[in-house]
Amino acid sequence: MPSPNARHEICLRMALGAGRTSVLVMVIREALGMASVGTEIGLLLALAFVRLLRDLLYGVRPTDPLIYAAVAATLGAVAVLASYLPARRATKVDPIVALRYE
């Protein structure tokens, strides 16, 4: 479930007229932005420590672009799923009720 501040922001946006779809897109876009920054940092660190990783990998080149792309795609899919489910639940709450509660 989104934090109380995030839920409050979502309800406020919906009370002011934002549609459920636009709120979902906003939340997923923010999550993908954070995930992409984290993925880029992780890929750079993996490339920086490739000499240390070489001894741990069997049957895979340490700089195999397919592996890096698969990891980045998997992390992106997890970020979308992890942000979509709570955001969808938050958009189903009646904005007025949620704003009065908090």
Give a short summary of the structure.
The protein has 102 residues and is mainly alpha-helical. It is built from 5 helices and no strands. It starts with a helix and ends with a helix.
Molecular structure report:
By secondary structure, the protein is mainly alpha-helical. It is built from five helices and no strands. The longest helix has 29 residues, at 20-48. It has one domain (4-101). The mean pLDDT is 82. It has helices spanning 4-15, 20-48, 50-54, 65-91, 95-101. The chain is rod-shaped, with a radius of gyration of 19 Å. The two termini are 15 Å apart.
Principal-axes geometry comes out as rod-shaped
Helix/strand-derived category reads mainly alpha
What are the low-pLDDT stretches, counting only 5+ consecutive residues below 50?
A: none
**SSE string:** HHHHH
Average pLDDT reading: 82
Radius of gyration, in Å, reads: 19 Å
